Amino acid sequence: MIKLKEVNNIFTMAIFKDNPIFRQILGICSALAVTNLMLNSLVMGIGLVFVTSFSSLTVSIIRSYIPKHIRMMVQTLIISGYVIIVDIILKAYYPTMSEALGPYVGLIITNCIIMGRCESFAQNNSPLPSFLDGIATGVGYTIVLLTIAFFRELLGFGTLFGFQVVGSWWPNWIFMIMPPGAFFMLAILIWVSNSLVPKPDEDKLSPAAAKVGGVN
Amino acid sequence: MADINPFVILIASIFTSNMILSNFLGMCSFIAVSKEIKTSLGLGQAVTFVLTGTTIINYLVYHYVLIPFNLEYLRFIVFIITIAAFVQLVEMIVERYLPTLYYSLGIFLPLITVNCAILGVSLFMVIRSYSFIQAVAFGVGSGLGWLLAILAMSGIRQKIKNSPVPKGLQGPGITLIITGLMALAFIGFSGIVKIQ
């Protein structure tokens, strides 16, 4: 049975020390496009938590039956299956959001983070820790999305989750809603996180990043 | 979307709605591979080629297989399989018949299978319900736009290699800032054509 300390460890690793976006600059394709509104980011994050956790679980359960050389294909198919579930649920219960997110729901498939977790964690661990690792990675990702969206929506529209929070004196920075705003915001966040938490060990990190980067 | 001139789509997908700079697609390999001009050029060419091929195949598959059988919801799986199969096929053909090209492009081909831009273009094509010619123009244009962006980025990165960048920004941080500036510059193109 998995110990509480282990669970704790998985979560701090995935959310703070090894956060996929800050530390490895992975999966930002779908990250940036949805961050002009907090609500979109939240929905995207929930979808990602769901897909990451369940595909890690599935990969971990059947890991001893997958032939080594076609495992990438199998993982991709498993991930696509879960993404289709997310897409169908969104279309059925939240059609406006489904329209707003557009192709980016489908692009969860090519999000390097999910494949990265399947490949580096679920492939070598038992189902329960893999499932938790998937949730933790997804939550870490969602926190970053929400942080970027917080600043972009606040500065760009003067709202948070659609509610007006600053008065009418606020001149909206249209710039923040446009694509360049997302690039600058993420760069600033990476800068802040690198300055607050110095990189543990350059050499230790790079093989993992290179490995997953090679996939994408 | 039915009446847009394919040529307009071609220009728009290169400049005004560039895959990287306005849709954020293909960022992972964009940041990882844009260190040298030569490799960027190789990857850019491979992406353009694969994009053109997969857009055509996915268009045909979607309109002549998935729609007649009411299987639109399976498009994610079908598209990703098409892309993977196409990349594999191209790799084998190039390796067999064009060994010199294989040595310059071959190493990039496996990287492309899960490049977000490839799947993204196919999905955009479906959402915007392009006709066949429009879809081809969109695929070619997106590929060229991607090539242009990564080539420009690698040029800039070679220039600033020895510049004093703040410690926390080194590597991906400064790359993102440059990408932001490039995106800002590309907004200047948006007056040329008005779509999206």
Automatic annotation (TrEMBL), chain A:
The chain crosses the membrane at residues 21-39, 45-66, 73-94, 130-150, 170-192. Keywords: Membrane, Translocase, Transmembrane, Transmembrane helix, Transport, Ubiquinone. This is NADH:ubiquinone reductase (Na(+)-transporting) subunit D. Its main location: membrane. PANTHER family: ELECTRON TRANSPORT COMPLEX PROTEIN RNFE (PTHR30586), NA(+)-TRANSLOCATING NADH-QUINONE REDUCTASE SUBUNIT D (PTHR30586:SF1). It holds the Pfam family Rnf-Nqr. It is a multi-pass membrane protein. It is found in: Endomembrane system. The keyword Zinc does not apply. It comes from Alkaliphilus pronyensis. The keyword Nucleus does not apply. GO terms for cellular component: endomembrane system; plasma membrane. It comes from the Bacteria.
TrEMBL record, chain B:
GO terms for biological process: electron transport chain. The chain crosses the membrane at residues 6-34, 46-67, 73-94, 101-126, 132-153, 174-193. The complex is composed of six subunits: RnfA, RnfB, RnfC, RnfD, RnfE and RnfG. This is Ion-translocating oxidoreductase complex subunit A. Pfam families: Rnf-Nqr. It is a multi-pass membrane protein. Belongs to the NqrDE/RnfAE family. InterPro entries: Ion_transpt_RnfA/RsxA, NqrDE/RnfAE, NqrDE/RnfAE_oxidrdctase. It comes from Alkaliphilus pronyensis. It is found in: Cell membrane; Endomembrane system. It comes from the Bacteria. Keywords: Cell membrane, Electron transport, Membrane, Translocase, Transmembrane, Transmembrane helix, Transport, Ubiquinone. Part of a membrane-bound complex that couples electron transfer with translocation of ions across the membrane. It is an enzyme of class 7 (translocase). Its EC number is 7.-.-.-. One of its GO terms (cellular component) is endomembrane system.
